[in-house]
Amino acid sequence: MKNINLKVNLAGISLKNPLILESGCFGYGEEYQDLININELGAVVTKTITLKPKVGNPPPRLAETASGLLNSIGLANVGIELFLKEKLPYLKKFSTPIIVSIAGETTEEYLQLIQRLNEEQIAGIELNISCPNVGKKLTVAQDEDKTFGLVKAAKKQTEVPLLVKLSPNVTDITRIAKSAERAGADILSLVNTFSAMSIDVETKSPKLGGILGGLSGPAIKPIALRMLWQVRKTTSLPIIGMGGITDSRDALEFIIAGANAIGLGTAIFINPQAYQGIIKGLKDYLSRKRIDDINKVVASLNEK
Amino acid sequence: MKNMLNCYYHMLQIKAEITENTELFAQTYYQLSLKVGEISRLAKPGQFVHLRVNQKTVPLLRRPFSIHSVGEKNLQILYKVIGKGTEILAQRKKGEFLDMIGPSGNGYKLPDGKVKVVLVAGGIGVASLYFLAEELTRRSLPFVVLIGGKSREDILCRDKFKKLNVDVMVSTEDGTSGRKGLVTDLLQELLPTPHSQLPIVVYACGPTEMFKETARIARKYAVPCYLSLEKIIACGVGACQGCVINTKDGYQRVCKDGPVFDSEQIIW
Ligand SMILES: Cc1cc2nc3c(=O)[nH]c(=O)nc-3n(C[C@H](O)[C@H](O)[C@H](O)COP(=O)(O)OP(=O)(O)OC[C@H]3O[C@@H](n4cnc5c(N)ncnc54)[C@H](O)[C@@H]3O)c2cc1C
Ligand SMILES: Cc1cc2nc3c(=O)[nH]c(=O)nc-3n(C[C@H](O)[C@H](O)[C@H](O)COP(=O)(O)O)c2cc1C
């Protein structure tokens, strides 16, 4: 079949295909310069940036589990000033939309970050309200009212589409999604990593320096997919679905369940070229099913 | 070859054909040879390659292995079977392909002037030091090799090093080969009487306790010492910040800022 459309539009951000490289798994982009051609992607999301540089959590920060990866990075990042000066210029060399992920300790910090970013040419700002690896407090994304308050305040200041990244570590993710929508979020990203742990039985010590970490990779895919499907039923906002996607079948599951675009995280580590196979796989699927547009597959689950 | 920004490549992702995967010692140590095209030309001693042992999600992550030697469009790694990933790798056959990224990491910082080099290898740590030894030979820099292991079977590459016409000293913990004791005992004896007027530089690779002791001895005799460290690595390109160690300059990534570090920089 000729003329298959893979373009998607997320609240005004136009993507040449629905593949997005996700926060924390793509660094600042330049690390992958020999392995990934950013111009072939729908969009990229930067590592989460904070106001001040953050050194992150004590090592060890990684543990491998059955089809999963546990991490406790703790938002290690260069901070907004160095990011704008040294990291963003690299990403701007490409035609692909750049979404900057940010996190603050307080609403005020989020707003300061947004103000600095308003001076830059970027496609969107993502509020990371769901990192499980900082402090012992609950994250904003675990509380409906806090989510509402932060998103509302952020929306007022933001001049580009506002993305909100949700946590799976909640009893009912649809309530948080609705809060974010009511407060003015333009796009929802879900999910962040699942709070989890792993133990070395020989030494009886946690495998991670931070004891608890966030689980990602194929191990979380069915749960992430369930959450996406539930959120799709409660909102009409564009959704970026992620959690364990490694190939085009995984991607299609999320799209059929209701994702307008899909995010790759851990898969980038395993196979930086995975996106190429997924794009090809999506095209082959559409062609085989005689569908001319990926958008027609979104939320197409047959529920009898 | 250049990338999309018209810069020369430093690393590549390729499908590397296995030309050899031989057991060196009963189900423990293996030597793997791969056809790697341009990667062999880019590789420097101390760098590693990041391999997928299969195409499944268990094990999920790639596994890092030091480059042991390079030839025309091929390279070798030497590995020890210690867990599920290396067990699977040992089953892979000649003619099959492995997904590989490399060369990765910084590599050994080679000495500037005329020096005498001491290589200290613990167990499978000899893997990367042999590549370094070949480079030192090419540069006509004098060196000695100290190899230690638990037992005779854990002493690898002795003959290969000897072919480079250098002194090789061996120690084993059980005394079945060479001197009974630790390889750091050999270092401790060598450094006060190096039989050389040249300044000394130490390069070491092995287990954690050996690193700490090597660093301590090097400091005692005020000789520069470089260690090739191991950590669990996820991205392998410096993006995820997962493999950090603590140094005087803060957390540093083993996969990108390392794996080789100046021992004086490391905070144990
Ligand atoms: C830069 C670098 C170069 C290396 N070079 C070589 C080499 O030349 N030859 C060689 O045999 N090995 C080398 N290693 C170690 C090798 O990567 C691990 O032995 C391998 O990843 C283990 O995989 P596995 O699935 O068999 O073990 P697993 O089942 O994953 O683990 C078995 C045990 O080993 C520990 N372990 C796992 N991965 C690592 C790791 N990356 N570093 C330290 N401990 C680990 C685990 O915590 C566990 O206790 C290198 C590691 C690094 C970081
Ligand atoms: C090492 C690592 C670091 C991450 N860092 C961030 C981060 O800084 N900000 C963020 O919003 N998500 C972060 N994530 C979460 C991912 O963006 C993604 O939501 C999650 O891993 C699930 O997708 P996956 O299974 O495809 O990896 C990180 C994930 C990993 C594995």
Structure description:
The complex is a heterodimer of chains A (about 300) and B (about 270). Chain A has helices at about 80-90, 105-120, 145-155, 175-180, 220-235, 250-255, 265-270, 275-290; strands spanning about 10, 15, 20, 45, 60-65, 70, 100, 125-130, 160-165, 185-190, 195, 200, 205, 215, 240, 260-265. Chain A has a single domain (about 10-55, about 75-195, about 215-295), classed as Aldolase class I (TIM Barrel, Alpha-Beta Barrel). The model of chain A has no long low-confidence stretch (mean pLDDT about 95). In chain A, strand 7 (about 100), helix 2 and strand 8 (about 125-130) form a beta-alpha-beta unit. In chain A, the strands form four sheets. Chain A has an eight-stranded parallel β-barrel, surrounded by six helices. In chain A, strands 5-6-14-11 form a four-stranded antiparallel β-sheet, with no helix packed on it. A two-stranded antiparallel ribbon of chain A has the order 1-2. In chain A, helix 3 packs parallel to helix 4 (about 175-180) and helix 5 packs parallel to helix 6 (about 250-255). Chain A has eight helices and 16 strands. Chain A is α/β, with parallel strands linked by helices. By secondary structure, chain B is an alpha/beta fold. Chain B folds into three domains: about 1-105, Elongation Factor Tu (Ef-tu), domain 3; about 115-220, Nucleotide-binding domain of ferredoxin-NADP reductase (FNR) module (Rossmann fold); about 230-270, Ribbon (Dihydroorotate dehydrogenase B (pyrk subunit), domain 3), CATH 2.10.240. In chain B, the strands form three sheets. A seven-stranded antiparallel β-sheet of chain B has the order 4-3-7-1-2-6-5. In chain B, helix 6 (about 210-220) links the parallel strand 12 (about 200-205) and strand 13. Chain B is globular and about 50 Å long. The complex binds flavin-adenine dinucleotide and flavin mononucleotide. Flavin mononucleotide (FMN) binds next to strand 6 and helix 7 of chain A.
